[in-house]
């Protein structure tokens, strides 16, 4: 995950990698965050806790929809979590 966030009025660049274990249930994925690797360029570190940044042991029940030939949206309860580009 790479991008910028605003937390408590301050802007941060984030750069993280996630190991996610998942199982497929119908047309949804049940996923659990196994580990987080925070890159040295990540400015937020461990201190920023916002909904959009997954934490270890966090659970997701998600659905992946293809938007076009290169983009996918990952949603949870019809709310977008991420947009991924292939």
Word description of this protein:
The chain is mostly beta strands. The protein has one domain (10-43, 53-85). The chain has no helices and six strands. A hairpin with a 4-residue loop joins strand 4 (59-66) and strand 5 (71-76). The chain is globular and about 40 Å long.
Question: What distinguishing features does this structure have?
Answer:
86 residues; six-stranded antiparallel β-sheet; mainly beta; 6 strands
Taken together, the total number of domains comes to 1
Shape: globular
- Overall pLDDT level: 87
Q: How many helices does DSSP assign?
A: 0
Strand order of the largest sheet: 1-2-3-4-5-6
Distance between the termini: 13 Å
Number of strands: 6
Order of helices and strands, N to C?
EEEEEE
Strand content: over 45%
**Which structural class do the helices and strands define?**
mainly beta
What Rg is obtained from the alpha carbons, in whole angstroms? 14 Å
Work out the helicity level. under 10%
Residue runs with pLDDT of under 50 for 5 or more positions: none
Main β-sheet: number of strands, strand sense, barrel status?
A: 6 strands, antiparallel
Secondary-structure map with pairings?
Elements: E1 2-7, E2 10-25, E3 28-38, E4 59-66, E5 71-76, E6 79-85
Antiparallel strand pairs: 1-2, 2-3, 3-4, 4-5, 5-6
């Amino acid at each position: 995950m790479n991008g910028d966030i605003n937390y408590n009025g301050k802007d941060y660049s984030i750069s993280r990698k996630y190991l996610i274990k998942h199982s497929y249930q119908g047309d949804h994925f049940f996923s659990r965050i196994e580990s987080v690797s925070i890159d040295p360029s990540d400015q937020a570190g461990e201190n920023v806790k916002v909904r959009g940044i997954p934490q270890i042991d966090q659970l997701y029940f998600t659905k992946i929809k293809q938007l076009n030939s290169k983009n996918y949206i990952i949603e949870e309860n019809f709310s977008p979590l991420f947009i991924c580009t292939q």
